[in-house]
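User: Can you help me understand a structure? I only have the sequence.
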Amino acid sequence: MFSGESEFLLESQDGRKRVFRRVNERFVPQCLSQARAFGGGSVMVWGGITAAGKTPLVTVHGNLTARRYIDEILRPHVFPAIHNQGLTFMQDNASAHRARITNQFLYENNIPVLHPWPPYSPDLNPIEHLWDLLDRRVRMRQPQPQTLLQLERALHEEWDNIPQQAVQRLIGSMRRRCQAVILSRGHHTRY
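Assistant: Let's start by predicting it. Here is the structure, written out as tokens:
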């Protein structure tokens, strides 16, 4: 199971909104929008993927501590999937993932973890590409989410609508990804 967190901004990364208007409509109120500080806020989510399916998308409100990671993610979502499907768990080096109580929980619950994950290694986790796909799907929605609650709902709806075939394609690319990193001696690859 490949897992990870991602943060999604209410407004696009570059802070620009595209407005289509006629030449003489430059300052017409319908063609203007108020800028929002910090991109209007963000929504943090966690998800996991396997060749057999996706976990539910989990919204992470506030700071994800090790205790919250165990109670809100590992126990309800990772533990059942790992044991039902006989999988190995992959997580990155976020502090909540490396905490002593997290490692203890994983050990005590016989959750096999892919170790060691080098701290400055190229990010080969296929879920990173799924986050990009999820962001593009949300950005294509019309109308676009205008509030954090709308963004959160859109993320959950689009996550549920991502076809399993797309997930399987990403997981199936792992051999090529690893070979590319080996050939580049750990430097950048096209992945």
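Now, to help you interpret it: Strands lie at 2-9, 42-50, 53-54, 58-60. The mean pLDDT is 88. Let me know which part you'd like to focus on.
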